[in-house]
Fold:
Amino acid sequence: MTQAGERLEAVRSTVMRAAKTAGRAPDSVTLIAISKTFGAEAIRPIIAAGQRVFGENRVQEAQSKWPDLKADHPDIDLHLVGPLQSNKAKDAVALFDVIHTIDRKKIAEAIRGEMERQGRVLKLFVQVNTGEEPQKAGIAPSDADAFIAYCRDDVGLELEGLMCIPPVDDHPGPHFALLAGIAQRNGLTGLSMGMSSDFEDAVMLGATHVRVGSAIFGARQPVAIQEA
Ligand SMILES: *Cc1c(COP(=O)(O)O)cnc(C)c1O
Structure:
């Protein structure tokens, strides 16, 4: 098995152990392997090791590698976990199966329109900016209830759950708990939270989707700024 394959196995068993400790079913947590910055040659061994759920943070980057990989493995589930511009909604709906970053009315409406036009139904998460960081995407916690209601009642979207990226310098626990509280009071069951450094905590606090990149693929090389 490759080194990345071994790291994948280690992450999987940590997820299962955390779920068990939390009294949850192991299959109640979906591990999303975040392959951003890595090319198809790094992704194929992870597919060969049995992983079928992957995530990317840029539409354009994903378009450069996933159409071929998906053609070879039609059972792959591809998640968009990075910010989305409405002019990319068409491409995003065509390529991805799940979007974690619905955070503005314009995006919600654009995604709804594209799903209708393309006859595709994606699973959708609303991103909440739990740390209220000005540079970060996501709806403010105090605006989340109203935004969720807007997506459901005005746009007619069926939502899967909520997603957050806690501030790097904070303890993630309170952010995960805040997200879980907003989800619960809105009747949402999906919780996309937890990355390489904190996915175990996230599972303990109810994550249904953990987004793990470097713990599987290894450290990312710094990349030149790309267009979103
Ligand atoms: C890159 C990224 C991840 C994975 O980060 P790691 O720390 O490498 O696990 C998770 N979520 C989002 C939104 C990301 O952009």
Observations:
- The radius of gyration is 17 Å.
- Residues 3-21 form the longest helix (19 residues).
- The mean pLDDT is 96.
- The chain has nine helices and eight strands.
